[in-house]
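Sequence in, structure out.
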Amino acid sequence: MSSNLAVIQKTRSLIAMGDIVGAENALSELADTEGDYALTLVLEELPPKDVLAVIREFDGSRGSVVNMAVTPEVFARAVVIEKQYKDLTHTHLRGMMNSVIFRDDADSVEFLTAIGDLEGGAEAMANYFAEKWSRIEAFARTGSFDAVDDYGDILSEDDLYACAYVPARLQHDEVADQDWMEMAWLLRYECPDLFIETILVLRAKARAYQLSLEEDEDEYDDPTDLPAHHVGKFDTRETDRGRATRPAREAAPEDEDDEESAI
């Protein structure tokens, strides 16, 4: 246990200095010498912002033992504070989510359930799908990702819930790309409540963009892009309830370190 404490202190110190590679190496050395279980215990003790600092720097092209060992609960606590980095492209978010949720030994639904259990989970999923908003709306309406000129009327919230449990039009193996299509399929057919909340948050983001247009006419050409000055300025409390996968329970309390910047 004392050795674990030493690794935790070393890791936090390296992250505070901005040496993410050094921190990952320290955690990898722990796994090599004491096994994956010891690494899992250390990750559970590290503040979410420190776990996030490591895992967001690695994806499928840059493997990390941390991404392979992190548990759903620890990963979820990191995911919901990733927005603190204010990465408008969400590139790191998508990379780390794909690398962890679709890793070979992972139960993808277990990870998505853990994310949906936390306040901010639906917003994190909405950020993941930010560049695919119209395709996700089409998938909700038709069960297909096919791009068409007219996606039809946007489903109301009641309609979304009414069709939440309809049979899948596409089979899982048809969209098993370990990327956004498979993620959307898993959400809709395995975690439908989280899927609906994600859509509602995406719509809230779109409404925030429309408000920005009224304030700054013709400043932005792409109606799917959110301007920087509006990021984080919309209220998702009515849609992102933090209990999409456990409606009878209250959202988990925030970690006291979560208020700190993840950078």
